[in-house]
């Protein structure tokens, strides 16, 4: 018996995020804020190329181990199933699009910075409810997940906290669109 690198996109994503956090907490203390955090609308400078890089890389950086573990416990649970269903390259594309959409909307609409993979988590949660989707049908699991997960995020968006419910909602919207318009590989 041997260990298999069974979900290359998900595992590489997880290991890269862990490495960035290790480096941020040891050798390069400003790494996360300088390369892996999207500034809010008042700090985002569209002429600064680093800000455009951050639009994609914010899903790799995390504030601390609790933040990383809470995101990647879902990603490592759901991601391999999605990677097998949709393919490694397709899942990578979905992660990149979700990072872009959550990052760009945050940079131009919200005053706070954005950091972490929670938008990707919600993309995967909603996308997972489509794994047995057939044309002309709306899975009941999708309706329930949409109601429970995104309903909670909409409700929580009216409370004061350090969580980007906006990224959760946008990530869930991305996952819903991917589920409707990107058929699973057979």
TrEMBL record:
Residues 52-181 form the Peptidase S54 rhomboid domain. It is a multi-pass membrane protein. One of its GO terms (cellular component) is membrane. It is found in: Membrane. Pfam families: Rhomboid (PF01694). Keywords: Membrane, Transmembrane, Transmembrane helix. GO terms for molecular function: serine-type endopeptidase activity. The chain crosses the membrane at residues 12-32, 52-77, 89-108, 114-133, 140-160, 166-184. This is Peptidase S54, rhomboid domain protein.
